[in-house]
Specification:
It is a single chain. The chain folds into three domains: 30 residues, no CATH class; 265 residues, no CATH class; 69 residues. 67% of the residues lie in helices and 1% in strands. The protein has eleven helices and two strands, in the order E-E-H-H-H-H-H-H-H-H-H-H-H. The protein has a two-stranded antiparallel ribbon. The protein is elongated.
Length: 447
Amino acid sequence: MSLKAEPDQAGKIVRCPGCNTKMQIPEFVAPEPSNMPLPNGPGLDQLESINYAPQRPQRLGWKETDPTNPNGLVTFGIGLVLTLMWFGIVYPFVPKDSVSSSHYTTMQFLGNLFYKHFTISFLNTLFFCWASAIIYLKVQKLRHQREALLLDVLPFEFGQEINSENVSLFIDHLYNLPVRLRDSLMVNRLRKSLELFEVRSSVSDVSGMMSSQSDIDSARIGGSYTMLKAFLWAIPLLGFIGTVVGLSHAIGGMSFSDMGNVDAIIKSLGAVTGGLGTAFDATLLGLVLAVSLNFPMNALAKNEDEMLNDIDAFCNEVLLPRLNDGAGAANGDAVAIADSVIKGLASAQKEFLVDLNELSKRMNDYAANLDKRSDAFQSTVTKEFITNMTAMRTEVSASLRESMKMTTQYISALETGIRGLNTVLKELGQQQIVVQQVKKKGWFSRE
């Protein structure tokens, strides 16, 4: 297997992750240049006449410690020691059973509170002390991050702007910072940004990397509160469990076997009420510890968010404006031409839009006029049609009335004639008609 190791681990004995055997990491030795001639090429004594691109220095960085998550075993050890110390302090003040709770002193009340439900109280106190140890060490880490913000990480004596020629000076300056202070969120982010700029020489790439690193740091800080949130959830829940156990014991201790003995019943009720009073002490302890833990935890989370915002603001307002990848100087003419072309296109587009709007307006006017003319023509045609139809109907009606009138007259005259004919025929039926033949005269005869 090929394994990687940090430079500060050189010479140390570690276990192989593949076979789990111990081995020693070899000492780090920088490779020395060889004096052997290159294949089919000149030797080292002849390389002076050849122009090679300068080699960037190989930097291995430094081992980054977790900036926000304390060591779990250390915090557990601190919490366990604090818990044992506290129970040792209140143990001498544990009241005897013969002392009434109304006569407890403050220390006796605390001794009864922590020792009455020992298992639940011990777990709650352990969780609280463990969480307090985490908060304390996180506060120390936050103070370390705040101290790193005071460093002059980008000195102006190296240059007003950071470019490909002087970026190595800024990186070397970061490597020369004290080991304790350079291992911080801000210095690590600046180192990664400058090393990326040294390789890529692109401000946009550096900006994207810093944005991604900001998200990573924010997620890391948010994840450091997972255990604290678990403790904040478990402490009051254990208090409720202690209360339920106390209630079950108190109710189970009720005895009314001797109903005739009033003193025994009163004594049994007194034991029950006393057990109910002490049963809620577990919940009281859990709620007090949870409230005492909640406010410092949220205050610390707020301060860490503000610290991360300060780092983001420094990178965006100080580092990025000073980065110069040379794109503006190398492509000045192209940028000017591009600006001219853009302005020309914008002007032509503006004129085109103006003409298009004017043409659209005219087309709308033509369409509106056409609609008006069509409506007027339709109205005229409809009106003429109605007028002609009315006149034709009037004429036809008049003609029909005249024809009916004449027909009626003809029928009346015909009826009169028929009646007269009938009269004549009747009269003829009573008389004899003599028909005489008239002698026809010749053409040349005389009378």
